[in-house]
Specification:
126 residues; alpha+beta; 60s Ribosomal Protein L30, Chain: A; 21% helix; RutC-like_sf; YjgF/YER057c/UK114
């Protein structure tokens, strides 16, 4: 049985999908981009600020499911330019203890929704 996770502290879906789905003890988040949930605007002043907003959105979704970054077992990072990898990774790494960091892949893609530079999704387990 699945439970839909929804919070006003992360951007509302812009299509036929949920912010996250909990099935059993496993949470699957949808990809988050740098939409500020307060004003609906993209936060793209720098790649660092963009990545911070993505991580804040993911934190809000995790919290809505009564989890945090320690529960994350897998991350998928999609970026539009691999030259931004080190800046994105520097922000991302602030949210995880390196000794217990989740599995991850980082993939360069041609385009992302709203032509953002980074989108991240996660899988977490209670």
């Amino acid at each position: 049985m699945k439970k839909i996770i929804q919070t006003d502290n992360a951007p509302a879906p812009i299509g036929p999908y949920s912010q996250a789905v909990l099935t059993g003890n496993t949470l699957y988040t949808s990809g988050q981009i740098a939409i500020n949930p307060v004003n609906g605007e993209l936060e793209m002043s720098s790649i660092q600020e963009e990545t911070e907003q993505v991580m804040r959105n993911l934190k809000a979704v995790l919290e809505a499911a009564e989890m945090d970054f320690e529960n994350v077992i897998k991350s998928s990072i999609f970026i539009s330019d691999m030259n931004n990898f080190s800046e994105i990774n520097a922000v991302y790494s602030k949210y995880f203890d390196e000794a217990t960091a989740p599995a991850r892949e980082t993939v360069e893609v041609a385009n992302l929704p709203k032509f953002v530079n980074v989108e991240i999704s996660m899988i977490a387990v209670k």
